[in-house]
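REQUEST FORM: STRUCTURE PREDICTION
Request ID: SP-0412
Submitted by: Lab K.M.
Chain count: 1
Length (residues): 732
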Amino acid sequence: MVNKETLLGYMRADSYRPLSYRELLTVFEISDDEEARFSKLLGRLEKEGEIIKTRKNRYGLPEMMKLVKGVISLSQRGYGILVPDEPGRPEVFVYGRNLNGAMHHDRVMVRLIHSPNGGDRPEGEVVRAIERANKTLVGTYDKGKHVIQVIPDDPRQIYPVYVSRPRKLKVNNGDRVVVAITSWPDKNKYPEGRIIEVLGNAGEPGLDVEVVIRKHNLRVDFPPAVLKEAQAVARPVSPEEIKKRRDLRDVRMVTIDGEDAKDLDDAVSISRIADGYRLGVHIADVSHYVREDSKLDKEACRRGTSVYLVDKVLPMLPGELSNHICSLNSGEDRLAISCIMDINRSGEVVNYELCKSVIRVGERMTYTAVNRILTEDDHEMKERYRDLVEDFHLMKELSEIIRNARIKRGVLDFDFPEARIITDENGVPIDVRVREHGPGEMLIEDFMIKANETVAEHLYRLQMPLLYRVHEKPDEEAMVKLNRVLGVFGHQIQGGDKLEPMTFQRILAAIKGRPEEQLISMMVLRSMKHARYLPQPLGHFGLASRFYCHFTSPIRRYPDLIVHRVLSHVLEGSMNEGRRAALASKMSFYGEHSTFQEIKAEEAERDLVDIKKAQYMHKFLGEEFTARVSSVNSFGIFVALDNSIEGLVHISSITDDYYEFNDRNYTLRGIYTGRTFAIGDEVKVKLVRVDVNEAKIDFELVELMANGSQEAKNRGRRRAQAVKCVRLGHRK
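STATUS: Completed
RESULT:
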């Protein structure tokens, strides 16, 4: 019987031309008994977008017909960007008029309608939606005179959803609700839906977390069958299992994490050897407990990742595993996969061993404690952990060597502030701080990267199916836009297809400490593609790594669990051809799904942090702050406080002149006064508006509010308008 691989393989041949249904039956010699199954296979592949049926009822591959599959991301401005499934293909720009009912994060088929030369993206038109990303949406109930609609919270969900007033639910105008889509949008109509849940009124305690969870369709509770399976497998380490493994329980090792971490999936050990250092990275052997295709495995795959929502965690695995038997809790026997590397004084791995092990962590350390030992020479901490102090200094020494080696090969290291929200017992934010990144955090990051690289290259050399962490080089359009800005400051990026990360690193080093540093760093970051998971080893551009995978966090990331599963089969000697083929056939799906779940989790986490920031700032309405310009747009300037909170100074509130936006150097310049606002400028601002629901914070410039009367401001505006009219050649 013809299967999916056989059919697609035949169609991928250079000699293939689209065939009709009857012609395919003849080619594959399909009998009458097999025809129903073959017809069902064609229908399924067409629905999934693997093949296309033309208007002349012939079947072919999408790429034969200038069609591209992928996930489309919509902008609140109404256009879309398609990220193709096929690695290496450029992103496709889709104008709003060509979306044809596609919604944010839908998997769609796009027809290329314009493939320009040069740096611009190709343009396309959505042919159809292959898979809808959001069956439900969270939004605000809006009852008008003639129509009732739900306005989605996410501005990238650009269509209002038409609804009827629910009969069994009490809903008031302005309530936050969950709406199920009953009729999808197309070119000529908006979506329709029915309200299935009323979340409550804006501002109710706890509503923010609930809204974010529903908005992003996050999974909260585990099904009873999954919990039952977790309880069954979460058994103490048995003597029989210990005998099968390398016993490393006498090796001195620690975990180093944040104070509130409960899922401890990595431990480290270190010693000095003749030619350098022996570093052990010991990772919880989650694959021992979460077997392939088990209920636990399927649920972990659906989730894809743990989601960290400020003071609430939605774990990928039930607590029996994530916080207990898989967590490397100190003083407990735990199963692990150990990556033991001999690293020379140049930061190179000269020898390594991968093994299944049993370990016993000696101490549960925190970043704070390690940083106090390494940077503050804290006597109390040094005395408390006196048996480990030498290890920590050795770790820092090795970490600096590894990091310097990465810098030499061109790693891109962006230093943008990350917010840490402090909440009370009710989830109300009481403080917002910038998360510190000391030597404790840095050494763990360096060691994990080194282990990830080692495992990825090991499995690549063995030609094993694998899920790589891939970060592709920026595309041509992004480089054209970046070079426009860099050219203003005397820099230029050359390279084309031979673009190297070292080129970017040299520019970042050249601007260090200069006024344009923040602008250029931000523009370089924006030019980068989002890292994703793929079965192909395309390298990690940002880390300047040829081979890279995620191996070190299997409790909280599904791709790491997949890597562990492959590695376990290799170490146990159970990787036969059948298993290899079965794993290889799943890698593309694992990669696409895991990437999508990761992006969804990042957006949810960012949304809640923004809401908490707005809640925190609401009590400071009317107060003044010193801030720095963090971004400049045609509609105003964003300013950031020292604690990383950002807000907008809208251009309409800057009344002393008429300001023009320069998109080459990202500045606003007054056409009459010549006053310029640029990224990095220090300004004095007053908090004038906070919209918690929309997580929007608005400031105004204090000096404009304090200087002169309203009439003086109006005169300045009239003068500016007059100058504009003269420049544009208008006559009054």
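NOTES: The longest strand covers residues 333-344.
Reviewed by: T.R.
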